[in-house]
Design a protein that fits this description.
This protein is an alpha/beta fold and 233 residues long. It has 7 helices and 10 strands. The chain is globular and about 55 Å long.
């Protein structure tokens, strides 16, 4: 599903060039749950932006679901993000004065589906993410952090993406709520979803079936992992 070949990303500031990625290569199969972990400045955020089609590498190749992402134009990257990638962010990125249901429906706005079809799909994704039906018409700013992240997970699923890309999804959550959210990701993976999770916390990374360790722009280790049944700090 994903294949990265010798990815290099160089940032230029005047005469100074900084390599955020230094020849990164790996592949991810359909149905895997992979954590990418590294300290600040390791290159994991740069890698996340490339995997999410939010940026392109300076050199190297990135294939997603048969598409060579590294060669796509900006409008093609936008189409790929909309159709192939479901994003879950640390800050939730929900519209605060909009209902839960409408937040999840938003990615379907230009899908060509009718209002009734969009609503039906959004409700199905919210139920799939174990969001209480009684909250569907609440404004998102009336929810707890864990509930907001469940809405964000439902929104990430609404376009039937090839992968779910989660960037520090427990970063704004307490320990108990983090446990609930990580269990939700494990359950989604058990249902067949491919998940890539970016984190700097080993306790979070340890919930995945595979861990890629990034440091100084290179892959330090890439190991299979026996995931813990639940998040433990």
């Amino acid at each position: 599903m994903i294949e990265c070949k010798n990815l290099v990303k160089t940032y230029t500031n005047g005469d100074i060039k900084t390599n955020a990625l230094n020849g990164v290569s790996f592949s991810i199969k359909k149905g895997e749950f992979v954590s990418i972990i590294g300290p600040s400045g390791s290159g994991k955020s740069t890698l996340m932006h490339i995997l999410g089609a939010l940026d392109t590498p300076t050199s190297g190749e990135y294939f997603l679901d048969g598409h060579e992402v590294s060669k796509l134009a900006d409008d093609e990257l936008s189409d790929l993000r909309r159709n192939k990638i479901g994003f879950v962010f640390q800050s939730f990125n929900l519209l605060p004065r909009t209902t839960v249901l409408r937040n999840v429906m938003l990615p379907l706005l230009f899908s060509g589906k009718s209002q009734a079809e969009r609503e039906k799909k959004a409700k199905a994704c919210l139920q799939y993410a174990d969001m209480e039906e009684s909250k569907f018409y609440n404004l998102s700013n009336q929810l707890s952090g864990g509930q907001m992240q469940r809405v964000a997970i439902a929104r990430s699923l609404v376009n039937d993406p090839a992968i779910i890309l989660a960037d520090e999804p427990t970063g704004n959550l307490d320990t108990k709520t983090s446990a609930v959210v990580m269990q939700a990701f494990q359950e989604l993976n058990q249902k067949g979803h491919t998940i890539i999770l970016i984190t700097h916390e080993m306790d979070v990374a340890d919930c995945a079936n595979r861990i890629i360790y990034v440091r100084d722009g290179i892959i330090e280790k890439d190991v299979l992992n026996k995931p813990r049944d639940h998040y433990l700090p």
